[in-house]
């Protein structure tokens, strides 16, 4: 799909569609994010590929591979925000980077490729919900053109990890396409 440099220590990163053969790595990377306590309210990744596949928008699921080794460094995928036709061009993004690849441009490479894919698919708004403590994710989204919409205070209570039992705020960010839907 696309190749980009994501930092000298990584070499070349290849961004390709996320398919079932990547599932084990997606689960591993997702679990690493969950373990931080600052990535998601989820307590575990979906139990299997069919559940993940059914919940994510086809064509808007990508992985970053270390080229030439082929190791999965991270992934990004879209979920629909509603089944109402008026929201057909609005999706929510999830992006996860393997712990060993964080801070090296993998997330930025993935999100840039994802934004290009959403534009090609006719998506006019991409939204993201990020815990305010997740400074790296907030910075990543803002770097790729997302803006803060507001804070959803005490949106949910964590039931896992280092913040178990705490009510959490979520920063709502969005990226509005400058070309689609204008």
Give your account of this protein's structure.
The protein has a domain at 2-126: Aminopeptidase, CATH 3.40.630.30. 25% of the residues lie in helices and 34% in strands. It has helices at residues 23-36, 49-55, 106-120, 135-143, and strands at residues 2-5, 12-17, 61-67, 72-80, 90-97, 125-130, 147-157, 167-176. The protein has an eight-stranded mixed sheet with strand order 1-2-3-4-5-6-8-7. The model is unreliable at 5-9 (pLDDT under 50).
Which keywords apply here?
single chain; 182 residues; alpha+beta; Aminopeptidase; 8-stranded mixed sheet; 4 helices; 8 strands
Number of strands: 8
Query: Which topology of the domain at 2-126 does CATH recognise?
Result: Aminopeptidase
Order of helices and strands: EEHHEEEHEHEE
Uncertain segments are 5-9
How big is the Rg? 16 Å
- End-to-end CA span: 27 Å
How is the main sheet built? 8 strands, mixed
CATH class call of the domain at 2-126: Alpha Beta
In terms of DSSP E residues, the strand content is: 25-35%
* CATH superfamily grouping of the domain at 2-126: Gcn5-related N-acetyltransferase (GNAT)
List the helices and strands and how they pair.
Layout: E1 2-5, E2 12-17, H1 23-36, H2 49-55, E3 61-67, E4 72-80, E5 90-97, H3 106-120, E6 125-130, H4 135-143, E7 147-157, E8 167-176
Parallel strand pairs: 5-6
Antiparallel strand pairs: 1-2, 2-3, 3-4, 4-5, 6-8, 7-8
